[in-house]
């Protein structure tokens, strides 16, 4: 109380201080004294308002306290009443054990009464069990399943009621229970017989529903009743602990097991042939399966749906059962091993036929099958596709190996190619026909599989090209070891060159047909590699062909630029005649190959001529002799160039112009010699010092020191990326002098 007073005094003092400060602030300006009355009235109104709010708050607080007190009083009364009731209840509980003992006779009498009532209700069934069993068996034989089931239910109810009464006894007698079960043993036998009959009916559902749908309906009514009884007995068993013998029967589960087994039997039964009996066994099996499933599912949709309860979703169940059974059987077929086109048959059927218009995509079924998953697991499909690609690859390897072996035997034979196949063989066409056939077949599976097959095909052609190149090289090597061993080298090398270009062209056509911007990068890389492989092989084969020509020309080039050369035209005339003779055979080359060979021959002949010129086999002693030699070189270069131009008109620089340019050094006087050398160096920056020294050494009228000085004082020319024939001309060094950077 003292603390409360102290607090009030402190609050009052604080309020006075605050009021004094407020008044001082209000009257700091002179004009505010005139408003004293106005301020007083304003504060009076504010005070009255605050007092009214305070009174209202206090009144509400007091009302709440009053209400709380009333509620506390009521609670106290309730607690007293509850306490009194609990005491009375505990008093009554103390008398229960005594009352329980007093009611034992009543309880026993009630149990006996219940047993007598149950016995009286089932008396008819108890005394007629043998007759009922025999009558039930007769009804089963007569197909009267509803009568059978009704009689069976009566017998089971009687047995179950009696067993339940025994179960309720506090001191259960095992002997009584065993005796009762033995007495009703035939009832469980009847249940098993009825179950077998239902199994038989359900296993023939698709056949029976066409002729006698009422039989299916009857069987399903019995199953539904048993299912309901199962639910009731299980529920009762959770409450009482009593579960009748043979419950739950789970006949609904049994029904679906029978249906699924019958579906599996029908699917497996369509495989009527084996591979040994019919090579088209798999195609026939899949077609029969397609027809069977389509027909069966139509029957299910039109005839079974009205017979089965809606909650069975029988059409969806049947679709799933056929789906699972077919999947299992197909996996067994695949595990047993497939051969050849059987891979295509399975993949095409699974990817297209199964989900297509001919089966699950049929208008009658599509609504129920559109959400159905794939027939085979992804792992099985990947393994199947991998095996299919391996099978194709193995076929390619074997076929191409045999093709190459056959061609090698032809190359080494003593039989001249006939005019029909002189220019090329049928191998390239056959190879790409084989590839096209595989691609068309794979397209029946999917576009993705077509792309995979195409990649494998191109890879095998590339491998074939590499093997082909090795075989051609061995063929060339054997020929040059002893040219008599291979009498028709030229003809077969022409065939090889044409084949290589044709393989390249066929590959390009295939690329235009199948490659798209969305194709895998590997496909484009393989096509590029294919072209590069066969173009390089064509180029190598062309070199081998011209290598034979070089062997026959070398001895004639050796006769150039010797002491007898100025007085005769025989070497060049012989070279021209030899070229003309060889190109009569080369006419069998296809036009692009013929142009390529003429281009290579022109470069080769010009290089051999330059090599002979710079080999320093002769030196022209006087200036006049040098001029005469220059004129003869120009004539021979033009003669060779004209011959090759006659064979085929070629674009690009004429390599014989290089030879003619070099002759300017031979016929130039001393004043113009440095200028001509400068022209050569500017046009051919990669010409080497040794080349110039060898060229000048042909001038016997020039001293060796002058030759070295003229070469040494030539300005350095910046090298370009474009190379000339001089980069490939290498001779033993005449002098140790480095003027140019190679």
Automatic annotation (TrEMBL):
Family matches, as InterPro entries: EXOC3/Sec6, EXOC3/Sec6_C
One of the GO BP terms on file: exocytosis
Gene3D superfamilies, per database record: 1.10.357.50, Exocyst complex component Sec6, C-terminal domain
Entry keyword set: Exocytosis, Transport
Entry keyword Transport: yes
UniProt family annotation: Belongs to the SEC6 family.
PANTHER family documented for this protein: EXOCYST COMPLEX COMPONENT 3 (PTHR21292:SF1), EXOCYST COMPLEX COMPONENT SEC6-RELATED (PTHR21292)
Protein name per its UniProtKB record: Exocyst complex component 3
Source organism: Zophobas morio
């Amino acid at each position: 109380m003292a603390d409360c007073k102290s607090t009030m005094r402190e609050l009052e003092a604080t309020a006075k201080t605050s009021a004094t400060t407020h008044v001082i602030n209000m009257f700091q300006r002179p004009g505010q004294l005139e408003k004293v009355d106005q301020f007083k009235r304003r504060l009076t109104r504010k005070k009255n308002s605050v007092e009214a709010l305070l009174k209202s708050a206090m009144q509400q607080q007091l009302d709440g306290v009053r209400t709380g007190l009333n509620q506390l009083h009521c609670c106290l009364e309730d607690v007293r009443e509850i306490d009194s009731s609990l005491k009375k209840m505990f008093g009554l509980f103390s008398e229960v054990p005594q009352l329980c003992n007093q009611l034992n006779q009543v309880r026993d009498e009630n149990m006996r009464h219940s047993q007598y009532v149950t016995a009286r209700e089932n008396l008819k069934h108890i005394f007629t069990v043998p007759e009922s069993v025999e009558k039930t068996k007769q009804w089963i034989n007569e197909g009267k399943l509803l009568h059978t089931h009704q009689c069976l239910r009566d017998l089971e109810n009687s047995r179950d009621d009696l067993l339940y009464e025994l179960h309720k006894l506090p001191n259960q007698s095992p002997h009584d229970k065993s005796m009762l079960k033995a007495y009703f043993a035939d009832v469980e036998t009847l249940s098993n017989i009825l179950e077998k009959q239902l199994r038989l009916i359900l296993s023939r559902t698709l056949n029976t529903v066409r002729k006698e749908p009422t039989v299916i309906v009857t069987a399903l009514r019995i199953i539904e009743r048993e299912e309901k009884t199962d639910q009731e007995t299980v529920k009762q068993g959770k409450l009482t602990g009593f579960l009748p013998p043979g419950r739950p029967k789970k006949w609904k589960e049994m029904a679906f097991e029978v249906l699924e087994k019958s579906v599996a039997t029908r699917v497996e039964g369509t495989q009527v042939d084996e591979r040994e009996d019919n090579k088209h066994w798999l195609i026939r099996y899949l077609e029969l399966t397609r027809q069977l499933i389509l027909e069966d599912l139509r029957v299910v949709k039109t005839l079974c749906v009205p017979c089965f309860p809606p909650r069975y979703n029988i059409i969806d169940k049947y679709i799933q059962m056929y789906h699972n059974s077919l999947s299992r059987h197909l996996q067994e077929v695949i595990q047993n091993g497939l051969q050849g086109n059987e891979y295509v048959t399975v993949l095409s059927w699974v990817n297209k036929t199964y989900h297509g218009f001919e089966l699950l995509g049929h208008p009658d079924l599509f609504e129920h099958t559109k959400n159905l998953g794939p027939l085979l697991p992804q792992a099985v499909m990947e393994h199947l596709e991998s095996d299919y690609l391996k099978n194709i690859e193995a076929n390619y390897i074997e076929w191409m190996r045999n093709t190459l072996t056959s061609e090698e035997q032809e190359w080494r034979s003593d039989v001249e190619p006939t005019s029909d196949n002189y220019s090329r063989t049928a191998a390239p066409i056959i190879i790409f026909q084989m590839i096209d056939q595989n691609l068309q077949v794979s397209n029946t599976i999917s576009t993705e599989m077509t792309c995979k097959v195409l990649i494998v095909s191109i890879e095998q052609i590339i491998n074939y090209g590499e093997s082909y190149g090795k075989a051609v090289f061995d063929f060339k090597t054997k020929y040059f070891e002893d040219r008599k061993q291979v009498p028709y080298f030229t003809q077969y090398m022409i065939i090889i060159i044409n084949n290589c270009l044709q393989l390249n062209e066929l590959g390009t056509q295939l690329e235009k047909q199948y490659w798209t911007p969305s194709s895998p990068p590997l496909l484009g890389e393989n096509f590029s590699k294919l072209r590069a492989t066969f173009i390089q092989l064509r180029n190598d084969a062309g070199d081998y062909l011209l290598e034979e020509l070089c062997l026959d020309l070398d001895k004639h080039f050796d006769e150039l630029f010797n002491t007898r050369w100025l007085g005769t035209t025989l070497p060049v005339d012989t070279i021209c005649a030899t070229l003309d003779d060889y190109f009569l055979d080369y006419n069998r080359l296809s036009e692009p190959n013929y142009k390529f060979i003429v281009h290579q021959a022109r470069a080769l002949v010009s290089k051999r001529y330059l090599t002979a010129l710079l080999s320093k086999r002769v030196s022209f002693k006087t200036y006049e002799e040098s001029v005469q030699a220059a004129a003869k070189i120009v004539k021979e270069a033009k003669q060779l160039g004209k011959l090759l131009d006659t064979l085929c008109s070629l674009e690009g620089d004429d390599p014989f112009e290089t030879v003619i340019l070099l002759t300017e050094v031979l016929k130039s006087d001393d004043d113009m010699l440095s200028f001509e050398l400068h022209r050569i160096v500017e046009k051919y920056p990669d010409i080497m010092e040794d080349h110039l020294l060898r060229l000048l050494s042909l001038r016997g009228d020039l001293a060796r020191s002058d030759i070295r000085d003229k070469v040494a004082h030539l300005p350095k020319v910046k090298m370009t990326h474009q190379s000339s024939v001089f980069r490939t001309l290498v001779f033993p060094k005449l002098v140790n002098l480095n003027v140019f950077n190679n």
